[in-house]
Design brief:
3 domains, 5-stranded mixed β-sheet, BirA Bifunctional Protein, domain 2, Rossmann fold, 11-stranded mixed β-sheet, single chain, Translation Initiation Factor IF3, RNA-binding, 14 helices
Length: 487
RNA sequence: CGGGGUGUAGCGUAGUCCGGUUAUCGCGCCUGCUUUGGGAGCAGGAGGUCGGGAGUUCGAAUCUCUCCACCCCGACCA
């Protein structure tokens, strides 16, 4: 393992891949674009998953599982949907291999009559089933979520941020009114915001996607948008109001209380393993990861220090008593008894982003103390053994808050209100978010994208378009929008 | 799919232009001893189809042809 990471300011792209692999989060899979999520990375994902799973269960949602394989014809039922996903679908055409001249080849006799696609998302299978399950208003709402993998054959991939196969949750709900579906869409978006801000410590802008940026098949797409360390935007979660589009495509109607027939109203929403990439790129520093305590696989790592066997025994005994206390406190901890030197371990666990490190050696045993080092601000302090009970949780909370605040200050400092196109281009060139007026035309949106590579990340809920003019056309602004270059 | 680049041990690399002993070095790995409060030291050791194939040659990591893989830039995207 090399001792230095690439410079995070000048080559963040290399820094990112290096951190991901060296910290043991993930590795490249054998097929291009695929990723192996290693135990440390998977625990991080599981923690995120558990938090969100708890949130949706509290709000009445249930988990289920739908098949990976979908009839090709299903995708085509919703016109926009097929347009959006056709270009990146993996297709299963055969069901058998055979040996031929010592080679394994596809058996041409096993060609499928109806080809099958690997889900890029599950709206179509799920709505084909909802057709069977929904007859009356009494069957509604359906609030189903699934944790699953999906495959989108992307041209350019990056670990966690964009992989051919990724893990996510996709919620698919069915409602009897437009209003109820809209409320669900926004309620979930709010959960996403809470997950991002309170747990991942990443501040997000929330708002509506433009028609050009919305999900293929949705009436409206809402999103949470985060700023990464290179001042680019990352879409961290989306919630869609699907209107009656999928109900119409799959002919899903229900009988209302007054015995009329109506199409069902739908939502879908998702967050993915991309969130891991967001955590890395929102909090990392020159020494590696900085993982927020609430989702950290290891919240505290203990580094024993000793010179000989007698000291080792003393330290071990002392650590055992601390360990009991950490268990009682419900802290996720790890004691690193490996053979490496303490200095090596300090750097190693900093790379892995563990929020708190405890250094415990003969001096500490002697004085009934221990050294605590914080990953967020590199502070080291010596506390007494008895202080662990009261202060460790406080310190972890402080780190959680500090990471959020640092990210928020950074984002706010790099979000600029802009009134003319020259300033706009300058900010986009330097990096950062731009808040400005937009005349609401897709033509303007496209022109700006062509000329600057920046896209409208969202129309924020708290927009104030009054009195603004469009930064490109100079016409009266229809919306205030956030522009940025995105991942 | 277009433009550019790179393939030598688990990782990173020298050697390639100008063919010639046993393919270089660092990290990592194994064994032993000494070490351990910010990336330990010494000694010994294991590990190679030089991306694959074909050709030129007395002789190829090095020259020629061909195939393959991966990376970067562009078009698509959570």
């Amino acid at each position: 393992m090399s001792k230095k990471l690439p410079n995070i300011d000048s080559e963040i792209s290399n820094w990112y891949t290096d951190v991901v692999t060296k910290a043991g989060l993930a590795d490249y899979g054998p097929v291009k674009g695929t990723m192996v999520i290693k135990p440390y990375g998977f625990q991080l994902w599981e923690n995120v998953k558990d938090v969100f799973d708890g949130m949706i269960k509290k709000t009445g949602h249930v988990n289920a599982y739908f098949p990976l394989l979908i009839p090709k014809s299903f995708l085509a039922k919703e016109a926009e949907h097929v347009d959006g996903f056709a270009k990146e679908c993996a297709v299963v055409t055969h069901t058998r291999l055979k040996s031929e001249n010592d080679e394994i080849v596809v058996d041409p006799d096993s060609r499928l009559e109806e080809e099958v696609i690997i889900r890029p998302t599950s709206e179509t299978v799920i709505w084909s089933m909802y057709k069977k399950w929904i007859q009356s208003y009494r069957d509604l709402p359906i609030l189903i979520n699934q944790w699953a993998n999906v495959v989108r054959w992307e041209m350019r991939t990056r670990l966690f941020l964009r992989t051919t196969e990724f893990l996510w949750q996709e919620g698919h709900t069915a409602h009897k009114t437009k209003e109820e579906a809209q409320k669900e869409t926004l309620d979930i978006l709010d959960l996403y915001k809470r997950l991002a801000e309170e747990y991942l410590a990443i501040p997000v802008y929330t708002g509506l996607k433009t028609d050009a940026e919305k999900f293929a098949g949705a009436d409206k797409t809402y999103c949470i948008e985060a700023m990464m360390l290179d001042k680019r935007a990352l879409q961290a979660g989306t919630s869609h109001n699907l209107g009656q589009n999928f109900a119409k495509a799959f002919d899903v109607k229900f009988q209302t209380e007054d015995n009329n027939e109506e199409y069902v109203w739908a939502t879908s929403w998702g967050i993915s393993t991309r969130l891991i990439g967001a955590v890395i790129l929102a909090h990392g520093d020159k020494n590696g990861l900085r993982i927020p305590p609430k989702i950290a696989p290891i919240q505290t790592v203990l580094i024993p220090i000793f010179r000989n066997t007698e000291q080792r025994e003393l330290v071990e005994k002392y650590i055992t008593s601390i360990e009991i206390e950490l268990k009682q406190l419900g802290i996720r901890y790890f004691i690193d008894w490996s053979d490496s030197s303490p200095g090596f371990k300090f750097n190693e666990w900093e790379l892995k982003g563990v929020p708190v490190r405890m250094e415990i050696g003969p001096r500490d045993v002697e004085s009934n103390k221990l050294v605590i080092a914080r990953r967020d601000n590199s502070e080291k302090l010596s506390i007494s053994r008895d202080e662990i009970r009261d202060s460790l949780k406080t310190i972890l909370d402080e780190i959680q808050n500090n990471l959020f605040n640092q990210a928020k200050v950074f984002r706010n400092e790099n979000t600029h209100n802009v009134e003319n196109y020259n300033d706009f281009k300058e900010i986009i060139k330097q990096g950062g978010f731009v808040k400005c007026g937009w005349d609401g035309s897709q033509k303007t949106e496209l022109k700006i994208k062509e000329e600057t590579k920046a896209t409208i990340r969202c129309i924020p809920f708290d927009e104030k378009p009054e009195g603004l003019t469009c930064v490109y056309s100079g016409e009266l602004a229809k919306h205030e929008v956030i522009y940025a270059k995105a991942y």
